[in-house]
Queue: 2 jobs
Job 1
Amino acid sequence: MIKVIKEDITNLDVDIVVNAANKSLLGGGGVDGAIHRKAGRELLEECRTLGGCETGKAKMTNGYNMPCKKIIHTVGPIYSNKESDPVNLYNCYFNSMRLAWDYLNDNHLDKVSIAFPCISTGIYGYPKKEAAKIAIKAVKDSNYDNIDVYFVCFGDEDYQIYLDLLQ
Ligand code: AR6
């Protein structure tokens, strides 16, 4: 199942929320700042133990004071119109889906829900429509039946782009 919603991702009662982090994994602005504020200091403490994260890769932590159980921190590309940009953005979604799949299996769950923000399209400047196409392709390529995916849009523009692309 793939669904598009317009919401603040920090309010969602899903199993896993994905964070659009930076390589340090130590917090920042945008959705990263909102998640760290809501989750609290313990999240930062766990993130300090992770040793950062490469662009396109993903690492999982607990959710702490967020409504979700787990947070997957992934690092999108800073948009520069290079060939590596779409590959790295694709990998953010694909690797996050893979971590969600491992979480489902490790915990013997029947189903998990995961919510993605529009990675790289804020401070990192990725063109919104191109980013949405890549996000949808990576999630569809992942092809896990028992993972419910929410694309969480913060603004009307992203929301309309996703609705149009998923029609
Ligand atoms: N809920 C859902 N979406 C949100 C929220 C929220 N609470 N807040 C922002 N967005 P950005 P990036 C949307 O800038 O481009 C941080 O400093 C926002 O409207 O958060 O990947 C990190 O530490 C946009 O559509 O992430 C990095 O340094 C989307 O989330 C850098 O920003 C992503 O915007 C990462 O930049």
Note: The beta strands are 2-6, 16-21, 58-62, 70-75, 112-116, 147-153.
Job 2
Amino acid sequence: MQPHLAFTGYLGRRLHLGVCGSVAAYKALELLRMLTATGLGVGATLTASAERFVTRLSFEALGAGPVYGPMFDPGHGPFGHLEPGQSAHAMLVAPASANTLARLALGLADEMLACQALAFEGPLVVAPAMNPRLWNAPATRANWETLKARGVVCVEPACGDMACGEQGRGRLAPLEEIYVQALRAATVQDLAGIDVLLTLGPTRESFDCVRHWSNPSTGTMGAALAVAAWLRGARVHAVCGPVALWLPQGIERVDVTSAREMHQAAMDLFPAAQWACCTAAVADFRPEPFGPGKFKKDSGPLAVTFLPNPDILAAMGQARGPGQRLCGFAAEAADLEAHARGKLARKRLDLIVANDVTAPGSGFAAPTNGVLVLDAQGRLERWPVLPKTEVAWRIWDWMLALSS
Ligand code: C5P
């Protein structure tokens, strides 16, 4: 899993996973591993058809508990059909068959999974997998619309080659998409109603049509912040430099290349943002272009003039309105605290997160970060080296405390 999705703070929260009969049922085992790695406690229910493809034992062996089979299985006690609703914060059905979608839409309670889902009052996520003709059937279309209208989180199946050799829509959605939707459903929505703007990744500044000036930022820290805010219910806009990171569809993503493009995109979005956090490693300078085409190596020595780029965060600091909260990052190689204090004041920030890019486990491309955090009220903390997802979570906790 990409490090910006590897959240670990879900100990004490629970999710119930329903699995239906589909050749994609084996993928539910991988989903279970992804979900338990967050700390979530996961129970599971396999329909009778699911048990033709995968076994209860596999789910138990990978950490699921309790694991339910048929309604009247003596091992479940008299109230197994009601139990997930008493302990789980969210329910996920993946893969969901055409049959189970129909049961859910109608509210049938004639077998264990459908009955548990009917009795479940929390958020429900469904991710179907089926043959395209089953998916396109008018009855399935109607059931899908019914579930959406009821507020069920409906993860559309993907297009592609089917196990039966046909092509079309019906493949189980990518596991990352199902994982983040399930995680969001199990997350306390304490940032609901907040508009968050992020910049992330490097920028590229062209010398000519084939060369650029840039830096090794992968955007992991900013992407972890974007996903964490979205999981917690915020509306998120992410202005991304060139990065190879996947972001959930629910995040409004704007892809840019140069610092000037990032500046334009971010400043267009800034007036509507309540919180903005600039994590991008923006190139402070751009080479003066050589003109159209490519600079040839036999054209003589290469002399480059660098022009300053706009400082996006400083521009936000100047433009900010009274309700807006601003967070910046500082990548430093020495004197962390002094530089952090200077930038916090100069750029008119509420919060600054500084890291020593030369320290082990910190900085560009690492999945972890060791940071110093300082706010405008003078509170300062040094955190140990933590996963970037955990750093992200704590930064939003701090921003939330500042706003209240
Ligand atoms: O001044 P310095 O580049 O160290 O400040 C770092 C902070 O400013 C980061 O939050 C970075 O995203 C932001 N920044 C920016 N535009 C620039 C340079 C830095 O938004 N041109």
Note: The pocket of cytidine-5'-monophosphate is lined by residues 199, 259, 278-280, 282, 284, 309, 311-313, 328-330, 343 (CB under 6 Å).
